[in-house]
Structure formats: structure tokens, C-alpha cells
Amino acid sequence: MKIIRIETEKDYQITENITREAFWNVYQPGCSEHYVLHKFRELPHYIPELSLVMEIDGNIVAHIMYSKAEVVCDNGDIVPIMVFGPLSVLQEHQGKGYGGELISYSMDKAKDMGFGAIAITGDPAYYKRFGFVSGSSVNVYYAEMPRNEEAAFFMIKELIPGYLRGVVGTYFNPEGYLVDSVDVDIFDGSFSLKEKKVLPGQLQSEVKN
């Protein structure tokens, strides 16, 4: 039996471990996403109603987290939006569509809660199937890149049609996504030992001890 439900406090260690297993050695030797999740729960922009788990026969196999975010408009206005991630699926359950189900379910729930738009950084080939478009195509630009450079990995989806009409501005990642590597290593010490490996395709290719 498969269900999607809100994460509870008793799930925290499980979802952090799932996140660690899903991201380990993917973008860098080791990973930091499980610590990002752990710390985010303390922040005011974390959305607990959209921290969702998928269970298969009573076992959690996937998790998604959302945060409030903002677009700072060129005219000084602030437009509230949201961002999701990390999205984690246990490796043995990847490729079965579970991540996509969590995305679709959570976006419907976010729309019902009144949120107008979602930002995401990731693979355009994957996220465009959910209706995400390039941020620059709706005049929302990624803060960490010049506007004249296309940030294809930065995408936006309107949950309310026309929500971003007339908006020209910059998206800033909310506090919590950047974490200190020393703090990550200390936190990681509470988990089972795993080897950090340098692998092809990683964005960061240095093992930090």
C-alpha cells in the first residue's frame, strides 16, 4: 500500500537518512542535503505542512521539503513564492516515478494553500514535464548569475495563472541552503560510516575531511 502524508517528528531521523542515501556522492564527495533538511526545520520559512513522505507498505521511501522564498522586484516590491528541495528517493526505489508523484501531489497541495509560484534549481529535462519554465522567460532571474547569462537550471512554475505577470526581479535562495562543511561533517558523524568518493560528473570534486 502506498500513501503520501505529512512528515512527523518521529520520521525526522528516517527522512534525514533517506536524504543522505539519495544524495551521497552524487553532486560532491559525500553530501550536505541531510544536514540542510535537519537545520531547515528550525527556520521560520520552512513549511511543515509541505514536508511530505511517501510510504510503501509502512516504510518511508521518499521525502520532499518546501520553503517560503521571495522575488525581489526591480521596482522594490517583494513577491512571495516558494521553493522545494531536497527531494529524496531511496536509490532502490528510484526510477519508479515516486519522486514525480511527490512533486505533483505537493504542488496541488501548495496551490490549495494559496501559494502562487514555485522556484526550483535542477535538470530542465526532468522538471519541464511538471510545467516548469526558464526563470528568465517570466522575467525572474537567479541572483547568483548575471542576467545576460542563461541559467537553464533555474526554473519557475506558476500555481496561480498570471501570478507573476508584470514582475521583473531577482530570486534569492532563502537562508538555510548554504551550510558549513565542518558542521556537516560533525552532523554526519551521527550516521553510519560511508566512504566519500570523487566521481565523474560531480559539481565539487574534492574530498573534505
Number of strands: 9
What is the percentage of strand-forming residues?
25-35%
- Can you tell me the CATH topology? Aminopeptidase
**CATH architecture classification:** 3-Layer(aba) Sandwich
Helix content: 10-25%
In DSSP terms (H or I, runs of 4 or more residues), the helix count works out at 5
Our Rg estimate from Cα atoms comes to 17 Å
Largest sheet: 9 strands, mixed
What is the count of distinct domains? 1
Question: Which structural class do you get from the secondary structure elements?
Answer: alpha+beta
Mean pLDDT across the residues is 96
Oligomer: single chain
What is the global morphology? globular
Low-confidence stretches: none
Distance between the termini: 41 Å
N-to-C SSE string, H for helix and E for strand: EHHEEEHEHEEEEH
Q: What's the level 1 CATH class?
A: Alpha Beta
Looking at this protein, list some descriptive labels.
209 residues, alpha+beta, Aminopeptidase
Task: Walk me through the topology.
Elements: E1 2-6, H1 12-23, H2 33-40, E2 52-56, E3 59-73, E4 78-89, H3 98-112, E5 117-121, H4 124-127, E6 133-134, E7 140-142, E8 154-158, E9 169-172, H5 181-188
Parallel strand pairs: 4-5, 7-9
Antiparallel strand pairs: 1-2, 2-3, 3-4, 3-9, 5-8, 6-8
Helix pairs in contact: 1-2
Short recap of the structure:
By secondary structure, the chain is α+β, with helices and mostly antiparallel strands. The chain has helices spanning 12-23, 33-40, 98-112, 124-127, 181-188, and strands at residues 2-6, 52-56, 59-73, 78-89, 117-121, 133-134, 140-142, 154-158, 169-172.
